[in-house]
Amino acid sequence: MSLNIRLCSSSAFLGLAFILGVWFINPVYAAQNEIAKIDRIVAVVDQAVITEHELAERIRTVTAQLKKQGGAGLPPDDVLEKQILERLINDSLQLQLAAQTGLRVDDAQLDKTIERIAEQNKMTVAEFRKELENEGISYRKFRDDIRSEITLARLREREVDNRINISEAEVDNYLTSQASRGEVQDEFEVSHILIRVPEDASPEVLQKQRSKAEQALKQLTDGAPFAQVSASMSDAPNALEGGSLGWKTASQIPALFVDALKLLQTNQLTPVLRSPNGFHLLKLTNKRGGSSPLVIEQTHTRHILIKLSEVVSESEAKHRMDTIKERLDNGKDFAELARQYSEDGSAANGGDLGWVNPGDTVPPFEQAMNALKPGEISAPVKSPFGWHIIQVMERRKQDMTKDAARVKARQEIRARKADEAYQDWAHELRDRAYVDMRLEDKY
After folding, report:
1. pTM over 0.70
2. How big is the chain by its Cα radius of gyration, in Å?
3. Which CATH architecture has domain 13-163+438-442?
4. I need a labelling partner for 156 at 20 to 30 A (CA). Which of 8, 128, 374, 389 fits?
5. pLDDT for 6-42, tens place per residue?
6. Which CATH class is domain 177-292?
7. CATH class of residue range 296-399
8. What is the number of other CB atoms lying within 10 angstroms of the CB of residue 186?
9. Per-residue pLDDT tens over the stretch 36-94
10. Phi-psi bin for 439: left (phi > 0), alpha (psi -120 to 50), beta?
11. Where does 90-225 show beta strands of DSSP type E?
12. Can 177-292 and 296-399 be said to share one CATH topology?
């Protein structure tokens, strides 16, 4: 059985590659009964070391991932080894920084994450643990890996994501740019290779990196699988996962990419593209139109709430509501009774909640509200907050496309700025560190 082991599904992006922040541990570990070899050190990373066993284990995992993606052929062993060692070095530096600055994932947080992973696999934790053992995965090692992945994600949130600010002017400019390009609806399924160019690179370094990008393009045009070339040559954070970015709207990727992708047919490649970050190669896997206008039904509603508490029992609250409902039925003004009796924050406004969108309220409230015609008043309704009496005042169809577009634009601006900031932060951390690579000692 193949386990689905995911820590999160949305909203985080990693590096220039704009990939969705999905972390997973592939169920490929060394057999527990394998005879242990002398564990050589292959890299010293500040106060930590990376051993040959750790490197070999990660190589097995990544190799299995690439094979699962259907890529025919793998990068040469020495190339793959160096790529994976770089990933381990970056992870080690970030985990050390997390430890030094007091960022910890306690057992309770870890247990909740593992419970969620088990649920995704439709198992209890006990069943999930048993399945791990059946696939040769040490549960202790699995917990350690998941703890590390959570730590890395939270470190990025603290050091990068939470420091990103977006102004209303940025959102306005973003939407104006979208409209002028006429590409708001376009979505691309794309894969990406990055050949990074350092800041202030010399002409010699620039030419070397350009030649590397041209070499990668030649391998692809000669028929090499994209995932293989990505794993061998790309500097993008998702290089070892095949370079896939998944589906991206035109507004989620740079205009440079969009302009190049517009000229492609499915499964075609771009030429080498140049940006301030380096050289890029893109493959268009598919293309489709985007979402349709968002029109929803809004309800203008008001309510009276009696909360439950240690002092007010459910039966007492219900009795009070029945009394209020009787007074409403006898012609008393709803707003006046709301101001007098309601325990909700809307009481001062006569219980008026304004225009309510689908999903804004808890299900029992929404179901009762939806059953009413304008002007009607509900019987007492029980929700987690207490007892309500609801009146629907009017309904309307509202085009929320612009509002939704602003929310989406803000999310996409944040993701792009966080991508760039994370990439720069990770490279600065690497440049400041003491790293002694000892791969040559193996041979």
Report:
1. no
2. 28
3. Orthogonal Bundle (1.10)
4. 128
5. 454 333 322 322 222 233 333 333 343 343 445 789 9
6. alpha beta
7. alpha beta
8. 18
9. 445 789 999 999 999 998 998 888 888 877 776 655 556 788 888 888 999 999 999 99
10. alpha
11. 187-196
12. yes
